[in-house]
Amino acid sequence: MSYFVQVTGDENEEPIEIPTESDGTLLLSSVEAQFPGATGLKYRHPASRGLRGVRLHEGCLHPPDEGWKFVFVCSFPKENKRKSDDTLENSMSKTQRMEKKLQCSDLVVLGLPWTTTEKELRAYFSTFGELLMAQVKKDPKTGKSKGFGFIKFADYETQLRVLGQRHMVDGRHCDVRIPNSHGEAGTRQFNGKVFIGRLTEDISHEDLRTYFGKYGEITDVYIPKPFRGFAFITFLSPEVAQALCDEDHIVKGTSVHISNATPKGSNQQNQGRGGPGGGQGGPDNWNQQGPGGQNMNPLNM
DNA sequence: GTTGAGCGTT
């Protein structure tokens, strides 16, 4: 005789009744059929008021001593590892990525007065809409402005409005354009490694892990020492890395650019190795070791 | 101490 167990994906949702097996156990696969991704069940025990897990053995969920008379809630992986606003932000960026056209990009602001500060830049462009980032590019030695900067808006509509007109900042006409660097570079991705460009020195390993950990498990973060303005992040999932490629992300107020960890100017390191057809310096060759155990691939892929 | 088309420390 089979019994129906009330199972819900969330404590506030209406339960679905799922049939047990003839031996009184509930198959995890039956639960998964209704709640894809579920890894187990839990329930709130009336006496202890605490959440209790249901015993799971070889795909069979075993009833508590009281039987299947509670409402059981599905457990999902990583459920407690993530704050709710994190998951929100996560799914947000996922849907935004599907509509890349509607996503704001960094904008370059040309023709700024030499004296305009980041604060003034922000003050001016904030009048159009929420600003996520504002930077004035300066000479690192003198600290003087180079006369241009970068901004990023939260809303695409705002971006369109700002792009469609000329601007007056501190008494000087300025142009706002889509940066040249925004082109679609190599979309190929061979593993989970991405290049993080335009990094600033105040961004640490931990900052990168914290920020990019939202998108997937990170297996490595590499920041060259001495500082060189870039880093590499390796994700467990190549798909995650792929999805992030060619995007701009704001980490600690700096817009960093993510791109494929493939060297830009396919360097000639593999020449003379006698690959058929002149060895096109592809990923297959990159793991070959040079003399002295040196990795021939400059990017350590 | 300057400048005025451009593009962000691979």
TrEMBL record:
Name of the featured protein: TAR DNA-binding protein 43
Biased composition (Gly residues): 272-282
Record domain RRM: where: 105-181, 192-263
Record carries keyword Nucleus: yes
A Gene Ontology BP annotation from the UniProt entry: RNA splicing
Residues of the full protein shown: 1 to 301 of 442
Record-level Gene Ontology MF annotations: double-stranded DNA binding; RNA binding
Cellular component GO terms, alphabetical: chromatin; mitochondrion; nucleoplasm
Compositionally biased spans, kind Low complexity: 283-298
